[in-house]
Request: fold
Amino acid sequence: MALKVGTHAPDFSLPSKPGETLTLSSLRGKSVVLLFFPAAFTGVCTKEMCTIAEDYSAYEALNAQPIAISVDTPWTLQKFAAESKATFPFLSDFNKTVTRAYDVYREDFAFGMKGVSERAVFVIDPNGVITYSWVGENPGVFPDLDAVKKALA
Reply:
C-alpha cells in the first residue's frame, strides 16, 4: 500500500542526468509533485510527461516542482525528457530503492517485464509531508492532474 497523506516523504538522492544527482530534501520550502511512471517512451507515460511539460508554468505558479521518476537508466530518461520537451527533472531509480520506499513497486508489467514503478503521484508540501497520494492500479490509467493542482492550491 502506497504512502498515505500525512506521512513524511522519505528523502532520497537519485541521478537526474549522467553525473548529476537530485536530493528531495534540497527542495524543502517548495511543493514537489513526484510522478512515478512505469517506462519511458510508452504511450500513456509519454502523454503524461508531455502534458506536465506543456502545463509547467501552472506548476511554477503554484510554487511546485514536478519530478518524474522511473526505473529506466539516466541516459534513457535524458533522451525521454528531451523528446517530451520537459524542463523538469527526470530521475532514474534503476535500483528501485525509491520506488520501494514509496511502496509503488510493480512486480509484473507488460510483455513479461518485471519490476517497474506503478503510475503514481505524490504531492509533498514545503515541509516534506505528503498532502496527496494516488496510485493507478492499471498502468494505462492517466492521473487526474486537476486533482493534483487542487492539492497544491
About this structure: Residues 56 and 85 are 11 Å apart (CA to CA).
